[in-house]
Amino acid sequence: MSVRPIRILVTGRQGQVVRSLIERGALHHDIEMLPLGRPDLDLLDTETIAAAILGSRPDAIVSAAAFTAVDLAETETVAAHKCNGLAPGEIGRAAAELGVPVVHLSTDYVFDGQNAAPYAETDPTAPMGVYGCTKLSGEKRLASATGNYAILRTGWVYSPFGKNFLKTMLRLAASRDDLAVVDDQVGTPTSALDIADAVIAVVRNLIADPDERLRGVFHMSGAGQASWADFAVAIFAASQLAGGPVAAVSRISSRDYPTPAQRPANSRLDCAKLAGIHGVALPEWKVSSAEVVRQVLGDMRRSSAAVKASQDIQSPQ
User: How do residues 90-111 score in pLDDT, each as one tens digit?
Assistant: First the structure.
């Protein structure tokens, strides 16, 4: 007798984590990923959220979609508040009505970055900008709506998909010999593919076990630490080994690269609680980033070959 797969509804369709969840979920025969985004589920239109979730009847929800443009949030405050602050509460209420768990992705930006050590879940929150404030508001609204949740804070996310620091470095290195990169902000680069693996494991735990210790706030990032400049150097080292573009890295201060939103100087997260309670620990960031570099370079080469083949067909000799 066949067993119905676990139906995991994921908010969004195109984000880095959503696309990683779809890719990783396909490796599990007992999981069915249900990505749900606009127009059916629109975080800017909170009235669509409950209806879309209740109509899908999932076994668990992954709240992955968000307003992630950190600098734009400083001016697009209403949109950031709706997506990051209000929507998680609506997701939580729908989950409570269905009696299913929610895994919600949050951020290191709920902290001000002034700690000398990596941040633990018990450290006081003090967001510096609109993005961090709205994400913290979303955490609180979700927790008020349902007790059956795991909030996973992460940061410095990259992947083979969409726009991110790793892909930007490779793209710029294709046309420039030297890149200036900030060296006084420290965190942990975190692969969205690793995040997807961790989320799936946490979802399984929440479905299988009602233990309250599995619920609450957890920190989740790759192992180790780096500055943005360190990350860039590692990207180019991996790219060089794979025959890809390379650039020299000039280390600069964040004062030399001003942005509308202030970034935490320390984004390191202490992930011991997630490892101890859920048995989930992400790989070392250099290992995961090298794998993503190879995948991105492979995608770039296939895309280039496809374009060339198309041109050859359109312009026969």
Answer: 999 999 999 999 999 999 999 9
